[in-house]
């Protein structure tokens, strides 16, 4: 790694050591579109001038990007100045902030190969079985976190926490419809998925199938839906899976 990219990555990580700055970064990152200074300040409960300082520092450190747009939709004279908006930077830091779980992928693949040999199964089927069992394990972890009397909302929050800990970076989708689903903004097996897309996406799908099967109260279904910049799997409300 050359010195300049390394220094940029370290500067970005160091920037997040400051609590207010980290909270602002996480708030902006969690939004579906660029946010204003006022929105970010309100989102984390800090004064506007303090938000401005830290947001601009995050821009300087390469973690956020700036764009300008008129929120009113008006154009021409009298429309006012465009608002300064912040969004997550599109460039990837040399020191990655995303969780990767290559060891887990290796364990599942090795288990799949061993079971295929022992049970006379196709390797893909054995890997799918191992991955679904991993999903069941994640579901059990969510149930333990939520507790026996948890509401559906609490159970969904626990499932998101488990998936976030695994590196999937969950985002609510369809909020307000009464049947929210989850988008998985990060693939923990990204480098493997680039080289072996079908294998890794199939493994991810099986993991999520195991998870939703273990959490039937959430009414979610795992959908294979590749898209740029996120995991290939979406957890959709069963009535809104697109099928």
Q: Largest sheet, if any?
A: 4 strands, antiparallel
C-alpha geometry: elongated
> How large is the share of residues in beta strands?
5-15%
End-to-end gap: 45 Å
What is the SS-derived class? alpha+beta
Summarize the structure.
The chain is an alpha+beta fold and 243 residues long. It is 52% helix and 13% strand.
Please give a structural write-up.
The chain is α+β, with helices and mostly antiparallel strands. It folds into two domains: 86 residues, Winged helix-like DNA-binding domain superfamily/Winged helix DNA-binding domain (Arc Repressor Mutant, subunit A); 139 residues, Muramoyl-pentapeptide Carboxypeptidase, domain 2, CATH 3.30.1380. The protein is 52% helix and 13% strand. It contains nine helices and seven strands. A hairpin with a 7-residue loop joins strand 4 and strand 5. It is elongated, with a radius of gyration of 21 Å. It starts with a helix and ends in a 6-residue tail after the last strand. The N terminus is likely disordered.
